[in-house]
Amino acid sequence: MQKNRVIIFDTTLRDGEQSPGASMNTEEKIQIAMQLEKLGVDVIEAGFAAASPGDFDAINKIAQRVKNSTICSLARALDKDIKAAAEAIAPAPKKRIHTFIATSPIHMEYKLRMKPDEVIKRAVEAVKYAKEFVDDVEFSCEDAGRSDMVFLKEIISATIEAGAKTINIPDTVGILMPFEVGARIKELYEFIGEKAIISVHNHNDLGLAVANSLEAVLNGARQVECTINGLGERAGNAALEEIVMAIKVRNDVFESIETGINTKEIYPTSRLIASITGIEPQPNKAIVGKNAFAHESGIHQDGVLKNKLTYEIFSPQEIGLDTKDTLVLGKHSGRAAFKTKLEKLGFSLSEDEINRAFEKFKELADKKKDIYDDDIRALITSQMSNISATWELVAMQLMDSTGGVPSAAVTIKDIEGNEFTDAGIGDGTIDAVFKTIDRLTGEHGKLMDYKVKSVSKGKDALASVTVQVAFNDDEPPVIGHGLSIDTMVASAKAYIGALNSYLSMAGKLRKRDSKASL
Ligand code: KIV
Ligand code: ZN
């Protein structure tokens, strides 16, 4: 790697997935990984293999599919984590184990209950063990932002000696100011020299994650860990698109520094992740927000019409937002046009998957005149999120709730095609539908969040419903997406989607048992 090339380490599938409500199934993760590869990401942190069999499986499948990016798994400084990481990434042509342990006094004392010298010993053992499986080992000093610099240098020397090639200095709690990050990275760069690559991983609790990452680059860091749309735990991680575009647009400041990112894939990647997670970037979000290129005031509009550079510091085309793309699909569009559109939107589907998606597209085109990019994204992501469907909605009938008791009759089918029907009442129509689905499946979901939005424009717009449901108090809630011209049908599909995700993630893919029969 050249000295001035900044390695882009994407952790959307690991730290990003820790965003509340952002959990994804394996098929969704594979699609994202394939798009990250197309984007030119150097390292994809595909997950935390020891966290669950679902995480392991997703990393392993990504390792089988991605050829150009390095596939990485996170692992605590524990043998069992490192072994799981090594096994999960084994099929990847380029692979990395990322092991970590906390180094701040507060974490060592209260979380780890370990003395500093025990922490160093554990870190060294972890790096050495990881080196038995792969050459490319990264070591992270968790909560480095609040760690003592003398101790940091000690553990960094020891882990480099043990074989770590990348040393990550995370601001885990997002507390540092840019000047503090700059000073710390400068000092560490002078200390480490070229013995290892310095990486940074900044959280956004004070809204400074991107500024801190850029300051680190200016002071010698040559890897930045970031996520698409800034997804991540709490206030999120540094946004990949903002870091990359800042380095590109301000090449007067960053001089010869560059990334390997194909910026034209930024917008498709951002949209793909928003439609899979159901988490939309805020409208005024830098680079990829809906309003990032909208010029509302008359003075601005006038200026832009005369010369775009009056108010635009880079063109939307540079991030792959083709404002002139008028290819709207409809009833008469053929498979070839549909396939081209899918590729343009960043989907990597097999011929079989394209055929299934094309059938859904044709069904939709019978009901909806113009089909926009967002409709297609929603169509494909809803197909992906229901890939491991244990249950499927067959039919639904709602009884008028005006003045009466809201009620719903629902028919669903199981994986073998057996149909089950029941009817129930509720406090509102949605409550009636969800309660009836619970009775039919024998599961009991607690609705934590419900969002409905229109996918594109027109009175015939598709309704996209995202629900967050807790099926078990001991496990995190799952999300489900439903898509239909009819909002109630979309709601039922979303609820069933969440249930399917819960069942497949928990490895509980099962048939309807006798207890659930009515
Ligand atoms: O924020 C953090 O410290 C992390 C580490 C595991 C790298 O995510
Ligand atoms: Zn983090």
Describe this structure in words.
With 518 residues, this protein is an alpha/beta fold. The chain has 4 domains: 7-277, Alpha-Beta Barrel (TIM Barrel); 293-324, no CATH class; 335-384; 386-516, Double Stranded RNA Binding Domain, CATH 3.30.160.270. 40% of the residues lie in helices and 18% in strands. The strands form 3 sheets. Strands 1-2-3-4-5-6-7-8 form an 8-stranded parallel barrel, surrounded by 8 helices. Helix 6 packs across helix 7 and helix 16 (429-441) runs parallel beside helix 17 (487-505). Bound molecules: 3-methyl-2-oxobutanoic acid and zinc ion (ZN). Residues 15, 170, 172, 201, 203 line the site of zinc ion (ZN). Zinc ion is lined by residues 15, 170, 172, 201, 203.
Second rung of CATH, namely the architecture of the largest domain: Alpha-Beta Barrel
Q: Would you tell me the overall average pLDDT?
A: 91
Strand order of the largest sheet: 1-2-3-4-5-6-7-8
Distance between the termini: 64 Å
Total count of domains: 4
Instruction: Count every beta strand, where a strand is a DSSP E run of 2 or more residues.
Output: 14
Main sheet record: 8 strands, parallel, barrel
**Number of helices, where a helix is a run of at least 4 consecutive DSSP H or I residues:** 17
CATH superfamily label of the largest domain: Aldolase class I
Which regions are unreliable across 5 or more consecutive residues at pLDDT < 50? 509-518
What is the helical fraction, as a range of percent? 40-55%
The CATH class designation of the largest domain is Alpha Beta
Bound molecules: 3-methyl-2-oxobutanoic acid, zinc ion
Q: How much of the residues is beta strand, in percent?
A: 15-25%
Category from helices, strands and their pairing: alpha/beta
* CATH topology call of the largest domain: TIM Barrel
Q: What overall geometry do the principal axes of the alpha carbons give? A: globular
Radius of gyration: 24 Å
